[in-house]
Amino acid sequence: MQIQALAIKTLLDFANVIATAVTRQDSFAGNFVLCKKKISKNLCVIYFLCLIINMIIVKYINNLTNYELNRCNKLITQNFTNNRINTYEKAILYKINNDIIGFLGISHDNYLNQLCVDVKYRNKGIATDMLNEARNILDDKIFLFIDKNKYNTEVLLKFYKKNGFLIEYENDVEYKMWK
Ligand SMILES: CC(C)(COP(=O)(O)OP(=O)(O)OC[C@H]1O[C@@H](n2cnc3c(N)ncnc32)[C@H](O)[C@@H]1OP(=O)(O)O)[C@@H](O)C(=O)NCCC(=O)NCCS
């Protein structure tokens, strides 16, 4: 917790330094400009924080912007043979530098679907963070299926077990897991 607070403070200081540098050219002007400077400095702080901070956001599918929808569609089609985004109610998105690099679809009945992370960002705990977010925001049990015919079925089974999911049942084609 202390490390997180320190990291946030360092980021704020850094954003502040950049914002000050960007807005310094106005510094000897009159009151109106000073006021403008203060506003633009604050906007700069927010802008740089948005660029730097990794964010998990939860959105209704209907509220995704065109940019977000395109990026999610791209991630899904890179990782799965079919795209079922239109059947989900919500999505958990993982953003780095304002780009979406992680997707998790959530159906009305608390089923998690099509979890995927951009290959460049794997093995950094991003999927784990999104699963934790799903657990935090959803009431009752959460569920998911693992297709038994995937190239990575065994790794996925281990991955979800490591994240606290238990097998509810298995049949010839899939595992159903819950947490
Ligand atoms: C599965 C996936 C979402 C994991 O994302 P991630 O951000 O790298 O995951 P995390 O960093 O939180 O956890 C790393 C764990 O992922 C698992 N993993 C590693 N490579 C994997 C692979 N090729 N396929 C599946 N899981 C993998 C391992 O359990 C690893 O933990 P370990 O290093 O202790 O063995 C990502 O590999 C992916 O997008 N795969 C393709 C899409 C997919 O198969 N989705 C699952 C649908 S059920």
List the helices and strands and how they pair.
Layout: H1 2-23, H2 31-52, E1 55-60, H3 66-79, E2 90-96, E3 99-106, E4 112-117, H4 126-137, E5 143-147, H5 153-162, E6 166-170, E7 174-178
Antiparallel strand pairs: 1-2, 2-3, 3-4, 5-7, 6-7
Residues 79, 115-117, 122-128, 146, 152, 155-156, 158-159, 162 line the site of coenzyme A.
CATH superfamily of the largest domain, by name, is: Gcn5-related N-acetyltransferase (GNAT)
Count of distinct strands: 7
Average per-residue pLDDT, rounded, comes to 84
Attached small molecules: coenzyme A
Give the strand order, joined by hyphens, for the main sheet.
1-2-3-4
The tally of domains stands at 3
The name of the CATH topology of the largest domain is: Aminopeptidase
Structural description of this entry:
The two termini are 25 Å apart. The radius of gyration is 21 Å and the shape is elongated. The protein has 179 residues and is of the alpha+beta class. The chain has three domains: 2-52, no CATH class; 54-136, Aminopeptidase, CATH 3.40.630.30; 141-179, no CATH class. The protein has five helices and seven strands. The longest helix has 22 residues, at 2-23. Helix 1 packs across helix 2. The strands form two sheets. A four-stranded antiparallel beta sheet has the order 1-2-3-4, with helices on both faces. A three-stranded antiparallel beta sheet has the order 5-7-6, covered by helices on one side. Bound molecules: coenzyme A.
